[in-house]
Structure formats: structure tokens, C-alpha cells
Input
Amino acid sequence: MSNRKWTFILIPVLLLFGWLLFQFTLSSFQIHQFAEQLKAVSPKDRGSDTKVVLISQELDNYYWRSIEQGARKEAKQYGMRLDYIGPDRINPSEQIKLLDKAIASKADAILVQGINDPEYRRLINKAAGLGIPVITIDTDEPDSRRLAYVGTDNEGAGKQMGVLLAKASGEHGDIGVMISNERVENQRLRLAGFRSVISRYPNLHIVEIRSSNISRLQAAQQAQNMLTRYPQIRYMVGFSALDGLGILEASERRGAQNLQIFAFDDMAETLKAIKDRKIELTIVQQPEEMGAKAIKLLNDYLKGSHPQELTYTRVYEVHADTSDDKSGDDRR
Output
């Protein structure tokens, strides 16, 4: 075969080879670019791919709905999906089951209330071991591998209440105390802080502590029983939102004219009672702020920033002279 014929045969072959080589190089470059994009944006950074489960203490509790509202608004900004779940009524065993289910569902992150339970801590540690960050909210679980805590300094709030009562009482008198439930960790912490202050004053005495089980009706009944048994009580403290109103109802039934009531949180009725000088004061938490800060902290963590261990949200006092400036929400 002549050289001319070989030339005519090789030219198309070389052109085809060059075209194939160009296509291969272009595809390799595109694949490399795509791989780099995947490295830069991990699955947990891609907005709607991030599933966050918020487990409440009580599903339709106003306070927890406020936490949900704050968390949901913040999650929307980051394109996160927020699933809000919880028991119908306070039930630590149900909270444990829901945490287990959230882990099994392969949530990207979980927000929970601490309940001071060894099985709960085991599950939090399990989640951490699987790479699922857990943030405690409202009440901490400090002996677990939770990533961080966001919420009220509950023991500090109890101490604040003790200082306020000691000042109002002139450091003298008998005190009745109402908590929502002895199994609820934030109530235990508030009570511990309160006791630590009251114990400094030899003429201040806590004569009885009762539980309302987050029920205004039960708070009123328990407060009435307390006042019947100890008519000398001059100061009553409620450490959850419905307690103060229940105590007020009981005092009106009993005609307890000289009773001073110290409440918690800013239900509209509580603020009105303060304005009418039927309740002395209330300490107000920031549940919506808790939800929002927890989500922001989580977003920062997923982007590589390690959060501080404790983030305490604000509390403030409302007295008769300041109640006009506060717009109340229904709280726990």
C-alpha cells in the first residue's frame, strides 16, 4: 500500500482519537469539579437535608409551643426541617421512648429536655456515638455527652426568687411552696436554689412543699389544703406558670388577705394579677429565645464551629410597677 493511502487512513483515525481524548479530558474535569463541590458541602450542610427532632416535655404545653415557635422560625432561615414531638402529658418514660425513636429514625440532630435519668443519658451518649449531636434545652443533662445546653439557669432562678422573697418579707415568716412535679428536673433545681437562699435566714421557714402536676385546678386545691393546715403562712411561691394563679384562687377562697404570692412566667392572667396587686411579682423566662438559640448553635456546629457548653437565656422580674410594659404570653 502506498504512503498516500496510509496517510488517508491514519488522518481520520488520529482525528477520532483526538476527539475521544478531548471528551475524556472534559468529562474528567467535570467529575473533579462535582467531587470538589460534594467535599465543600456535606450532607448535613445542605439545608432541607438536615432533619432536627425537638422532643418536648408536654406536646401542647404553651411553654413548649413557644420553644417550638422559636426553633421553627430559626430552622426556616437555615432550610432545616424541624419535627416537633412529645408526650400528651408529662411522662419521662415516654420522653425516653421518643428519644430512642428519634435516634432510630437517623435524625441529623436532636433537641431534648434533660430529665436526670440514667437510661436517658445512655441514649444521649448513643446518639453522640453515632454522630448525632444532642442539645439539651430548658433543662440540662450535664453528665451525658450532650453537645451543649440552652435555657434558663434554673438553680440561679430559684436563688433569685429566694432573694426577692427574703427582701419582701423582711427575712421573717412562714413559706408555702408549689412545684409542678417532683420528677421534673428544672423544678428540682429551682427548689434547690430557693432553699439554699432561704436557709441563710433563721426566721424564714419553708413549712410545706406540694405538687400541682402542671394543673391550675390541682394547684388551687393543694394551695388551699396548705393554707388550711398552716394558716400562719404569709408567703407562697409557685415555680411553674399555673402555680401562681392556683395559689391566688385558693387565697381568694380562703380570704387570705395578707398572703403575698410569688409566681413564675408571664401568662396574661398572671400579669393582670400583678397589675391589680394580687400577685407580688413573677420571674419570666424566654422559651422562644431558647428554641431559636438552640437551632443557631446547631447550625454553627454543623458548619464546623464548636459551641460553648452552657448558653443561659435571659430571665427578668415583673412587679406591679413594671407590668404595664410587658405583653404576656401563656407559659408553662
